[in-house]
Amino acid sequence: MALVPKLSSDALFEILTRSSLETVGRCRSISKEWxxxxxxxxxxxxxxxxxxxxxGFLIQSLVDSQHSSTFVxxxxxxxxxxxxxxxFLNIPVRIEAVNQGLLVxxxxxKRYLVCKPTxxxxxxxxxxxxKYETASTALLVLKSKPLKYKVIRFSEPKVLVKHNSEWWRxxxxxxxxxxxxxxxxxxxxxxxxxxxxxxxxNSVVAANGGLHWLLSSNQVFAFYEDAENWEMFSLPxxxxxxxxxxxxxxxxxxxxxxxxxxSGEEFMDMWVMENYARKLWSQRRTWNINKLSGEExxxxxxxxxHNGDTALMEGFHKVIFHxxxxxxxxxxxxxxPPNRIFKFQSDMEEVNLNGPDxxxxxxxxxxKVNLKDHPEETRGFAKFLLRFAxxxxxxxxxxxxFGVFLRCYSHx
Length: 412
What we know:
four-stranded antiparallel beta sheet, globular, alpha+beta, 9 helices
């Protein structure tokens, strides 16, 4: 059997720069060569131009006790990039999490919603138990067609718990599933009383099949959505042992892998987790960032990687896209200092953000009931009963009865 000829780099470049984000993501796992090519700056720029993809960062600021967001990008589609905002929501919101073009936000009334800014779509989702203060929130898009996602929320306990003469924090874990359209509780996360999520300015890092947070104890907290379990592991010892007083540690995603950046006034080091199963780090790069500061007294600090060559850096009332390969920088002035940073990458296709449109009778024949054939009141009542389906399957039998009652009442 004849072997399939190997694609040249040019042919691979042409094909993948015309593919969707989902296809590019899958191709990155095929080989190291494909992964390297798809993270180059030239590839990233051409992909955005050819497929109308918006790529950059949402910078959230706190102004007069209200949150506002600004989108910054190197995208050539300047007109649309400048127009990307959350004004279509018609109310100030606080961004909680971002993933694959979707946002989880909370408005002033503490109502949770999910939106897609590039298509100006949004929908309210049920609220978690908001009486507990949010410690951190993550969003994970599992599938784009049809859309399937989960929201993971950790909340602070009101009291500490004492075990074996030591105090511990039991973080509540709640998970919202877009399929069931409901929150469910998961196992508590148990941390020492003096350990917290660090670097709250940056969002959670999704890499290597897990969600990752940097802890104040110089450890990494990893949560795995599929198994709903978690673990903690150490940072590279050299990064901690040689860290000075002014050094800053930051977890980032670099070419699909979990990475750690240690930065100071004149340098930036990076460690990449080469073997995730064995939790082995390797020091990959060191950069001199002293010249980026120029004449300013405020030194430059990294925020995240835009692609394999370019990083987003923070200066005084500005952010800088710096390409380390080409040694070129692009500065963008900010009206307000950043409060949180979210990496954003999205296509322009509309998605179905609504909850489930149908329910199933929990019988042996699994007969399907289409709620679109019933009034809005009936559909809402059915979705309400879905939350109690695990308690009693017979509650779903009340749906047609409730529909008949509404019709009789309307004709009375």
